[in-house]
Amino acid sequence: xxxxxxxxxxxxxxxxxxxxxxxxxxxxxxxxxxxxxxxxxxxxxxxxxxxxxxxxxxxxxxxxxxxxxxxxxxxxxxxxxxxxxxxxxxxxxxxxxxxxxxxxxxxxxxxxxxxxxxxxxxxxxxxxxxxxxxxxxxxxxxxxxxxxxxxxxxxxxxxxxxxxxxxxxxxxxxxxxxxxxxxxxxxxxxxxxxxxxxxxxxxxxxxxxxxxxxxxxxxxxxxxxxxxxxxxxxxxxxxxxxxxxxxxxxxxxxxxxxxxxxx
Length: 263
What we know:
Helices cover 32% and strands 32% of the residues. By secondary structure, the chain is α+β, with helices and mostly antiparallel strands. The chain has a domain at 84-142: Helix Hairpins (Orthogonal Bundle).
């Protein structure tokens, strides 16, 4: 076999090997979506909703709960009603105090023998009684626990029959109209991320793109969380970046995984 024939047989084999090696390199660095992810400015995370823990402002036994987990609520909607028997009695007592103070003040004013100090003292007692009545009415209002925002009840911590105590969470309301996602950007690329920067968010659950805007960039690096896909990614230093989804609709739900590409 001469050299020309050897070249004819070997050359195609060399070309095949080169193409295979190139394809393998592309797949491992870009096609698999793991190690090559560092070439794209962005990341993946979980959609979150801002949550508000609703707590009572007075102590009382819960007599009614108007919603459950998953219930949509508007700001001002009643979530709980507490036993207001004692609070109503306090209003009656305060009313009686106002009537008594008013009668005393009227009497002192008509009394020709009263002096200015007595009239001032009677007036002060009347003012204090009126303030006590206003406070009692405010306390009665606390027996009705309302939603502080539009959203969805995401968790319920108290049921009718239990005692509500100030500082203890009764229910958590999630503002689904204000969704965010947190991603982790490698230290080598964080200089390209700015507040107000826009991005595109996609999910496997919804067949459309969403707009997102950077609202927070961490000032300190941290080791990547264990939820990232590969060990190589988890040992790298990253910066937390939070984006607000600016055109969210009802298709997006808290807890959905999402991918973000920054522009």
